[in-house]
Design the sequence.
């Protein structure tokens, strides 16, 4: 289990919304820009790592019960995305690393792959 | 209990709003979270399909103590070969749909995976109907 706050520290990331949930823990990470893939995952307690920054990223996470999303490659969260994420009590984080680097760093601190 | 939601073809900023409303209703009814997730994932896939391929559509939801029955009907180009469309990886999605993170040819198979019963029928140049049934126990 990895604290969301440790994810933020490790990646020198910015918390966009959901700051009060930083003490929560996540067990698994799943990295994809393809929301169709994300919708096939039925693992709970998941951090989604993605470079896809549009409303469907938030909608997909809402349907999949994913509460934590890390945006890589310096992709910015729009105001609309932030609003929808807040309505669904999600935590959004942005970082400037590539997806590969972010995944590698998070694996180092104990985040597990789904498969 | 019956609910009806409209779906706008081509409007990706609203895609998922009908499924989101259904999720709120199922949560209020204290449905098992695993059943909620299976149901709303299949509804969302179907809703995205309407937005991606059709001109307009509707989502009709009926909930009784035993099951959730959802019919998603659209006016659109229809599906010429349903067996082909059900194959994982087959897609006719536009580049715009792919930019939104979809169009990998996984939608219909994922609806099937997440529903207890799935019925689909389609008429070319008229539209498509998908029925999703999930049992509550």
Sequence:
């Amino acid at each position: 289990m990895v604290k969301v706050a440790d994810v933020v520290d490790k990646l020198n990331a910015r918390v966009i919304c959901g700051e009060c949930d930083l003490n929560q823990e996540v067990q698994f990470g799943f990295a994809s820009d393809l929301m169709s893939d994300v919708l096939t995952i039925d693992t709970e307690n998941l951090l989604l790592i993605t470079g896809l920054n549009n409303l469907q990223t938030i909608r997909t996470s809402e349907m999949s019960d994913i509460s934590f999303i890390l945006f890589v490659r310096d992709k910015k969260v729009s105001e609309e995305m932030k609003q929808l994420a807040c309505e669904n009590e999600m935590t959004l984080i942005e970082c400037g690393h590539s997806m590969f680097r972010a995944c590698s760093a998070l694996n180092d601190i104990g985040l597990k792959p789904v498969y | 209990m019956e609910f009806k939601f409209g779906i706008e073809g081509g409007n990706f900023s609203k895609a998922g709003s009908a499924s989101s409303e259904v999720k709120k209703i199922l949560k209020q009814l204290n449905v098992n979270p695993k059943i909620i997730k299976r149901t709303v994932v299949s509804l969302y896939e179907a809703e995205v399909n309407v937005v991606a391929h059709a001109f307009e559509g509707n989502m009709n939801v009926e909930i009784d103590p035993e099951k959730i029955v959802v019919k998603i009907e659209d006016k659109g180009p229809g599906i010429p070969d349903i067996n082909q469309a059900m194959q994982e990886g087959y897609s006719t999605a536009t580049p715009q749909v792919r930019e939104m993170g979809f169009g990998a040819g996984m939608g219909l198979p994922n609806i099937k995976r997440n529903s207890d019963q799935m019925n689909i029928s389609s008429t070319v140049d008229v539209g498509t109907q998908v029925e999703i049934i999930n049992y509550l126990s």
In short: Chain B touches chain A at residues 12-13, 15-16, 19-20, 23, 33, 37, 40-41, 44-45, 48, 99-104, 106-107, 110, 113 (CB under 8 Å). Helices of chain B lie at 17-28, 33-53, 82-85, 95-99, 107-113. The radius of gyration of chain B is 14 Å. The domain at 2-135 of chain B is CATH 3.30.565.10 (Heat Shock Protein 90).
